[in-house]
Structure formats: C-alpha cells, structure tokens
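Entry 14. Structure prediction run on the chain below.
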Amino acid sequence: MSNFTDQQLKAITTIDNNVAVSAGAGSGKTRVLVERFLHILEQGKNVSPKEILAITFTRKAAGEMKERVRTSMEDRLAADVNGFWKNHLQELERAQITTIHGFCNRLLKENPVETGLDPAFKLAEEFEGEEYLQTCLLDFVRQGLKKQQQELIVLTNAYGINGTLNQLQSLVQEMDDIIAFGDLTTAYQKTLDDEPAAKARLCNIIEEFSQRNDLGKTKTAEAVALLKENLHDVLDGIKKEATDFTAYDTYLGKLRSSAKIKEQLEEIRSLKASLLNLDVDRAALPLVEAWQKVLQDFTAYYRARKSEDDFLTYDDLEELAVKLLKENEEVRHRYQKKYRYLMVDEFQDTNDRQKQLIYLLCGDDATNLQGRKLFVVGDPKQSIYRFRGADVSVFAEVRQAIKAQGGVDITLPDNFRTVDKILEACNEVFEELLGTDEKQDVFFEPLIPHNTSENKPVLLQVPYDKNTKDKARQLEAEAVARHIKELHQQGKAYGGMAILLSAMTACNVMTEALEKAKIPYQIVDGKGFYERQEVLDFLHLLTVLQNRERSLELAGVLRSPYFGISDEIITKMFLIVNAERRSLWDVLMDFDVTSIKEPHACLVEFARNNLAYLRNVASLLALPELLEKIMRVLRLEAVMYLQENGIAKFANVKKLIGLAQEHCASKQGTLTSWLEYVAALRKAQARETAANVHAADAVTIMTIHKSKGLEFDTVYLPMLDRRGASDVSIVKFHKQLGLGVKAVLDNGETVESSVLSKIKDEDKKLQKAEKQRQLYVAMTRAKNRLVMSGAFNEEGDSNADNWFNDLRGILQDSDNVENVIVDMREESLEPKVVEEDLDYGIPNDELLEDLASYCASGKNYFSPSSLQTYLHCERQYFYQQEGLPALEGEGEGGGELPPHAIGSIVHKALELYDGKDLEVAFNKAVEEFTPGNVSGTAKAKQMLENYVASDLYKALPKNKLKEMQFALPVDDLLVSGVVDCVVETADGLLLVDYKTGRPPKQDEVKVGYAYQLAIYKYAVEKLLNKKVIEAKLHFLQNLSEWSMPMDKDYLDASLALCNEIRSKAKEEDFTCNLANCKYCPYNYLCPQK
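Output returned:
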C-alpha cells in the first residue's frame, strides 16, 4: 500500500474501531474510501462485499465509488493466485454502495409486513412531492374555511389565503419538531410576564441617569437637568399599565449620544425598544395559538392523506426507516448483523434523523453511539447544504462521540489538487474567517500543499462611480472576459476554465460579456432547464400542435429560430387578431403574404404550411413518432447549429425529446399527458440539468454548489460583492426559540415579534457562517489558477457584508495575492453602431420582446392600470412586476377581506351579472377568489348591491359590452388591459372602468387615472374603429363618477411614463414613496419602509 500519507494509512487500516475523518479539500478521501473498502475485505475475518454498507451523498458518487472498487479489484486479478479477488468481484454487485435514501428505500421494501407498506410502493420525485403537498394544503385550507375553522380564519384574515398557504408550506419540513416543542405561546408569555421587571429596570436606570453631575456646562448637562425636573412625569408614564412614552420622548427622545453617556443611553433605549415590542408580542399571542392548532391539524390531515394514497417522499423514507429500526428489535438486530462495517461519506451534509439511522445500525440507542464499526468522513468546512436540511453540528457531535468512546479521530490536511500559492491565500483567508477554536462545529484546519507554482491568486477590483453604478456588473463581467481571453492567448485552453457563481441569476450578464469577447462557454446548472429559450420554443411548438388556440405560444414559435418571423409581422398579425377577435392560428392560415416583402413572405408561407402539416399528423402519430417527424420537417439540427452556442442548445432539445420518449415508454404517455407533466415540473421548479455537450474547448459556467467535488485548472469567482437575499419570512421556527411570527397591529402594520427577530438573528449568523464555507468550496476548486473579482464604488468604501469586502480586508496588503484594479469604464461606454432596417424603417430601439414572455418583462409590456401603482409608489410597482407575493392586510373591520380581494370579487361579479340574478354572480366570484370565506365578504356584497341599484349603473345602456380585452402595440411598446365596460351610443363609444378603492376629491384630476383612460381610449378606437366620446370611472364606494377631460391629450404623457419605467431595471432605480409605506402590501420586504 504505497503513496499514502500516514494519516491516510491510518484511516484505511483502522477497521477494529470507530473512526472519524476530517478530510480537507483535495485530500484524496474518495481514494481512501475505496482503499479502506478493499482493506476490510483483505484483512477482515471472512468479510463479503455485501457485509459492508457504504453510504454516499449522491447516486453519481455511489456509482463512481463502486466503479473504482471494481477497477481496483480487477487490477489485483493478475496476482490473484487463489481466486480471492475474483470471488469478491463476482459478489460486488450485491454490495450496498448507495445513498442514504437508497438504503432506506431498500430497508422498507425488504420489510413490508413490519412497515405496513405495499412492497411495490412508489417513491415520489421531488417535484411530485411538492405538487402533492400544495394540493393537500389547498384542500386543507378550503375545507377548514368552509367549516368556519376559527384558527384558520384568524390566520387568513391576518396573512391572506395565499400568505397562509405559503407559510404553512414553509413549515412542513419542521412539523415534527414544532409538535415536539410543546406550547408555542410559552416564549411570548414569559416575555409578557417580565414586563413589570423590565419597566422597573428602565425606571431605575433613567433615575440614575438623571442624577449625573459630571457632564460640565454642556447642552447634554442642560438636557439631563431638565429630565431631573420632570422625572416624575417620565417614570409615571412608563409605569402605567398601557405604557406611555410621551414624557420620555420629550426629555430623552432627542438627546444626542456622546462619549460620556453613550453606554448608559444605549441601555435605556434598548430597554425602551423591548417594552415597545411587548405590544407586538401581545398581538402575536392569538396568532401563535392559531398556528399551533392549524399545524397540528394539518400534520394529522397530511399523514392521513399520504397513507390513504400510498404516497411517500424522501423525508417519509427517512422517518419510516428510523421508526422501523427504533421500534422493531428483530429487524434492527438483523441489519446490525448483516452489515459488519459501516462507512458514511460527506457526513458534514447529514441531519439529526440520518444520524439516528446510522446509530441504530450500530447499536440499540438512536442518540448514543454503540459498537465499533462506524467510519465517517467529511469536511465541515464544505458543509453548504443547510437549505436542504443539512446540519453541520451533527458531524461535530459524532466526531466528539467517537473520541469519547475511545475511537480514532483523524485529520487529512494534505492537499493534492491545488498549488501552493492558492493554498497559502486560502489558509490566510479562512484562518481569519473560520477561526481556530476546536470547540466550534467548524474551525480552520490548514491545508498542506503538494504542488508548486509561481501563479499567485488574482483579486480583480473593478471600480465604478455614480455615473456607471448601473453598469457595475457589466463592467466586471467584461473585465473577467478580458482576463479569460488574455489567458487563452497565452496558450491556456478554455476547456480548463470554470466560472463559479453563487447564484445563476448573475449568469446572463456574464454570458453576454463572453459572447461579446467571442469566448465559447457551456452552462451546467441543476435548475432552469425547462426555462431555457430553446426548450421553451420546443414546448411552445408542442403546445400549439396540441391546441391551436394558444396564441401567445404560437407567437413565440413564429419568432423562434424554427421560422424567424419578425416581430413587426407578428405585431401586424396581432392587430388583426384584436380587430377581428380571432385566434393567431386562424390569422396565420389566412394571412395575405402579398402584403409583405421578401424574404418575409416566404418565411410566413413556410411556417403556415409546416405548422398545418404537423398539426394534422399530431393527431395521428404517437408521441415518439411525432417528435421524430418534427425533427425532420423543421430540420432542427441544422437550424439549432446555426445559432449562437448552437451545439449546447441542440443538445438540450435532444434531451427534452429523450425525456418525452422516456415518459411515453414508462407511462404510455400522450402529447397531452406529456405537456401536463412538464407543466407540473415547471410549476415546482424541478431540478433537471442541461445536456452535457462535452464541449472540447469551452469555459464552464456553474454554481458553486454544483461545483462541489469537482476541480478545474483555472477558476474564476466573479460578483463576490453580491449581497445575499434579505429574510422576509412572516413565520419561522427554531428548535430552541419556538415559533416566531409577524403580528398585525391595530393600525394594520405588520411587525416582527421578539421571537421572530431572535430567530432571524440566529439564522443570519448561521447563513453567514455557511456563506464563508461556500467561499471555501469555491476557492479550493482551483488547481493552478484562481481569479476572484468584485466591483467597488471608488467614491466611497462600502461596509456591506459580502465576500469581496472580506477578501479585500484580509488580502489588501497580503503577499499571497495579486491585487489588480481594472478600470473598464472607458472601454464599456464606447458608442455602439446600430444597423437600420431600410425596408421597414424599424426603429433603432430594441424590437418588441417575445410576445409569449411579455408578462414577465415589465420593459416593453405595460398594463394601463399598473401606471397608477407606479405613480403611487415606484417601488411597489417594481415588486408587483417582479411577481413578489403581496402581504395582504385586514379589511377595515378586522374580519373583512383585504381591499384587493374585495375589488376582484366585485369586478368578477359585474362581469358575470346578466341583469337577472346578482346573488348567483356574486357567489361565483367569491368561490373563485376566496373559496369558503363567505363571512368576510359582506363589504364586497354591499358595495355590489348598492352599485347595481344606483342611478349610476342604471343609466348605462343595455347594449354594453361587459368587458373588452386588448393587447396592442403603441410605438415600440405593447399595452394590454381589460376595459370593464364599453357602451355604444348614437354619438360614439362610452368607456367605463369600475373602481372599488378610495375616490378622488372633488375636481381632483388623478394623473394615473387619466393615463389609464387615455390608453383605453386609444386601444378601443383602434380596435373598434369608432370614436370614444367619453371615458369615465365609477367609484363604487360612494357611487360617484370621474370623467377624463376630453380636451386634453394624456396619451403622449402616459407613453412617456412607460418609457421612463422601461429605462429602469433594478430595485434601487424605483423610488420608494415613504408616505405610502404603512399599508403597502410589500412593506414586509421593502428596505426603506
């Protein structure tokens, strides 16, 4: 046994005791695991491969380990005189080298009687589990509201139905711990019980402060003297049952801190804040009680549903496996005897339940380690899967347990991957970030290099200023691309380079810079496969072949590389769609190609003929045959290869086709069932990696998480100055602290309880620690070169908590890194030449975006009603367009629905109302928007009845169109909306839009309303070719109306506003109107609230 270090040999040969191995990055732990497996067979007492249970983190890792064991056995066959290795090689297929879930699955299937499960049970995929959970949650809430379940009503009134559903879903993984916690109100009650003592402490400190006579002749001394004179009023206000801080604010509130009084004043203010928070905790109590009951009820409901449906998730596998081994001694002892040796890889990514499972395979106690057959290996510094439930403290606990029991604790510090210069920088950085306290779960253990190089790591620092702040990301990406290009020109292959990102949201700006520099790349990502444009194009095509009425999808297909029809021609088609109220398919089939020039006419003809043909055969062919036909007819391989990065795009299309064929073979699937299956996958954001194209020489782009376990010659770590997402949770649970919630105060404000604040503080610490470990993983992927980068404001240092500032602080004056400032501003701001389309006069601005994705854009697509939101608060508009969840507040009566829900119900009821039965229309609207919550709809019903009975409504002619939807290009924008009511009179058209919100003051012109009606007027006149003589709003709250002044043209101003919005991209570009924060549905996440 050669070429192993002393520590590696110890890990391989110690087979008669428990062993814990802390294996640093690049320390060769996989090689150690394989060699240990073989050593057990060779030196153990008649051990068979099937008696060794080896558990790895992924199926891929399990397969690789088994293959390495097989290869090593085959290498020994030449000297195998007595057939020892030949026999073991034959038995290797029976060896249990698997994942934790693979083992649990086998354990349950082998013991169906003991578990009460059907041995043929099917394990749900991750996305199927999420979809099933969402269905169960929705059914549970609907049933509860229908039965008037009080606790559920309390929660939906506070958070809205969607908010309650979302928070319930976020707590599902922790339901067992929540139930085990006991009374969730205890933490709140304890805080409230401490109120008298807290008041007494505050009074005592204020009294002591008022006696200060060491402040000299200062303004502070005068303020303290004034406080002393009015001390009685201040203390009396604090001592009141309903604490009154009026006198406190008068004499202490504006007191400026100085060195002499800073400590005392901070303590006073901290105690005051604690007392103020008591009101929040008091308001939180009924919500916490409601959560406890609802969570208990849903846990029982969910378990019963899964049992009835024979539905198992990965979590269920673990839970049932642990339960089986805990409760069935015979089964437990059988498996303890079956597996004489137990090896667990990547142990830093396990959780407590998995630890219990491992312990029960070693002995009879799920919480205390017994026996001497356990071998665990991992690297706490690489624990980065907390979001999946991994708990790094478990590795530390097991490591300590092994040492306490007399087992062996080994560290593998030698790194055989990375050159010395990079490791020296890593050691310097992580000694500072992680610390050396061995009592902590994670601590720094230096890496020892075995490879040398003259290449120091590079820290690229890209400056920006107030004029280039919006382009900071672009500047940095271009700097990285230039560095890659220069390295390639020095003879380094693109294929040996990798760009590792903390999140794929930063991918686009990076790929744009690479494309600009003509650098080939391939993206490897575990998410977003079904959202890639080439995949969406193919799915849109299949959707249209299945249902020709899907106009938006057809628009996406027409402008795709399959047909390449211009946006201008598609827009012309949509004008006909809107004018004639026909589907885009019908318009395409009848489109007059003589009205357009070549080569565009040929493209339309090609699209029309081939789509018609494919739709005809789609109804006759099985799915696999249809896919094959599409490939041939549209010549997809040639078409895709002509695209930028075409090899990878075609590989993704082929992978999608393969998945469809697999679905058809395994489930006798049809085109319809396949599209439904993919829709469910997309909704659950299921993980599916892009196709591996094995690009010969292309830069690899992937997330840091995806890179774990891999290595690259050169690693780039850009965007290190990115901030992490803020925690906007409404409800969170902590095993020690309990359940934290946001409480809704009497004024409608939603505020964090003290428990939620503490939980978020704890989570923030854990998140920061994991981010540091994530940086460790990223930096140690590099073999020969490491380039890190970030952007900084040269006009002022940032104190933001991010990797870039950490690295600059530690490495700014270090000899272990090359600090390089790269100013890209002059290069990036060069004017670009835009080619004009002389035939059509298309403007130089960007063409209309993909019509099928307009709804997600916010740049070229506008809803007239959203302009009012923008004028009300730009930041609220941004959050709304980003699709962030709005936190609905209570209605004015406490039990009423939020204003948004009231508006939706009233509008829907008016749309459905046929002039006969208003009650039927109202009930249908309630069922659509607030199913089961009839008790909160009284205000909506009253508003509806009053309006229908009013002269305002009765004055509308009977020949009105109830609604008119439109999607219409205006200049180079696309506007879309719904006019509530279009009335035809002898003189022209009358437009009416219903408003359930606050009416404007008399003679007040609300610009947002004017803009909305101006766009409606333009759209209706264009589509109906008739003049609009009047456009007005009906305010249902007070049965008033407001007419747009017809002598003014608001259209140009409204389009200018759209262009203003279009020029903005980031959150900070949208100003926050602080005057409107109090009842804003996004104040729970807005940083400026």
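The CA atoms of residues 533 and 649 lie 9 Å apart.
Filed with the rest of this week's runs.
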